[in-house]
Amino acid sequence: MRNSHTSLPSGPQFKRRVLAGQPSAQVGPCLHCLPLLLFIPLPWLSSSPRCRRGRLALSVERYPSLGYNLNYSQRRTQMIIRFKPYKSINDLESIIKQKRSDRMLDLRERVKIMVIDDKDFSPQENLGRNHYRLTPIGGDIQDINVTEPYQVILVDLEGVGGKLNPEMQGAHVIREIKLSFPDKTVVAYTGGSSNTLIQTGVLFADHFLQKDSPIDDWIELLDECILSYTNPIDIWKRTRSRLLFNGLDPFRITLLEDVYVDNWLKANQNTGAVLSDKVKSLEISPVMSKVIQTLCIESIKGLVKLWMEN
User: Buried-most residue among 158, 161, 304, 305 (CB within 10 A)?
Assistant: First the structure.
């Protein structure tokens, strides 16, 4: 009578594994093990006598969505499977939400904000008392690269950038900033410019606010911009979106996310270095490596201690 544990045919979803010293051993999953593909993990798998002759050959690399890291070990003729769930950004999200209010003042002092305005920026004094780091540079901007050291840019729509584009003025400055530095947060504001400039500025900017808005509105908006730049959840989501857009496969993104979240949860001050080593080990292309370096590794410098300390 034919054995009920006849192996399934190997295919793209299975990886052949021949145990050392057993070149003729069955390496496909037995019929009794098939539920494992749907119900993971089954606690009785490694101890079930009927399963000891079967060899689970599930290719983890082809199933990153399962969210499990499989480590294999051999005991005589038995293959034991241990399941370790990958960490996802959701594991970190609840911790960050609890600490947002406690870390806000420190975050305000950390993020540098540039103000491009040909006149005095009236909310500056009040915002300075609330620990924001504002640096006004006037409206005569001639080189967009001067904005590079700053994470948040406030741009008046009228009276600035005349030497770059006298017609579009501030709207042109915003467009050039977003083209050169797409990951910077740009806030357009005005004290009463034309509807055309407002419409164009809003089109290119991340946010818009009237210059004479109440100080509470400015505080709320700037806090949102600062959190978006410094929150490890948003940092990773931006990085993940860019990697997917550039064609990096989901499995390697899952591995990177696991390392990223695991080191954040451990409050590892060298999270950036560990992530950089992981990028090298996965043989990611230079283009992808630059995306990770720019959006993620450079952004988290010093943030682990700030967010994760008690």
Answer: 161
